[in-house]
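pinned: reference chain
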Amino acid sequence: MESEAQPMGRRVAYWRQRRGMSQQVFADRIGKSKSWVDKIERGVRRLDKYSVITELAEALSIDAGQLLGREPKRRPGFGGCLDQGEVESIRQSLERYERLGRFLEAAPIESTPIPELRGAVNYCWLAFEKGHYPVVARSLIQLLRDTPVAEDRPVGGSSADAAELMTQVYQIASTVLRKLGEAQLAWLAADRAISAANRGNDPLLAGIATTRVANALRALGRHQAALDLNVQVAHGLISETGGETSSPAEISVYGALLLQGAMAAALAGDSTTSGDLLDSASRAANILGRDANYYYTSFGPTNVMLHRAAAFVELGEGADALAVHDRISPVALADLVAERRAHHHLDMTRACVQVGDMANAGRHLVTADRHAPAEVRCRPIAIELIDQILHRTKGEPAQDLRRLAEEVGALN
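pinned: its structure tokens
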């Protein structure tokens, strides 16, 4: 698959070829000349109208985001989401180095006791799993300031304890920043997470931190690098922990690495590797025997199904994604954390757009908003989907979708 650094015309050519269409057939489908298509694919002619991009995406049975190659900028100030000032505060927190205060002539910061920090980190995880990203952001700003100081001057625990809390803080930051479309900041936070994990005593934290680095690489268009990293660490982890004799936590981290590797492979257009990794993750989930949430992975049979559907979406196979969705137990899905449920319905929105079912696309999007509003209102990809659904809906959109569009500022 094409990375965000590559021209849109090359992405048009990629998906046209995947659909088995010649330039002439594709041109006939969109009502253009073969010469026009050829110029678009060679980059001689620019695609700068959103209406044309959505028309091409519809003809290729993908969502417009897959032609854009990157998430659009956020629209701050709508729907109670984070504004740019809050993102900038997180950026500043990531760029500060409180542990160097004595060299920077800064006043020393009082160290927060580690038990108190642990409670704050657990609260931040809970807010993340509920999809309360503005609450997470406010917590992160303080935690990114306090955990480095606690590692340098631990109170009520060891430096390793503080480092383990720090890697969790960086992991939360990386995930939220990636969802907000801040890929570079997400990579910085993930890289810090790896470093902090290696200073702790829990090797599984390093395994989970690896998924954050790989996800940030995916957001930057580095799909093959993300795939290689996930698979290498997963194989290293399982060889060290003993395979089927591993603990439930070890199996969960191993499975999470495989799932993220599968998503990276799908984004790279490698359906075979993606399927193989999903099958391996499914076997790990069967060994685990249930849906669990060790290390906040939500790993288990149901989450494997969610990733299988998501991988089909990234491969542009919306019908296959929806078929997987139909096999997921509603009861099992309801037992997952709100962030996972909303994320899945966002993926199914994309699947419906790919098959041209705008009515059900709108329903999935509204369902995602009901489970975790910030997963829709704060994510650029969701705002772009609202635009696309409204553009492609014949007649008036459903009332609940129209209300959502108004609340996020998608209606002019």
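why pinned: The chain has a mean pLDDT of 87. The radius of gyration is 22 Å.
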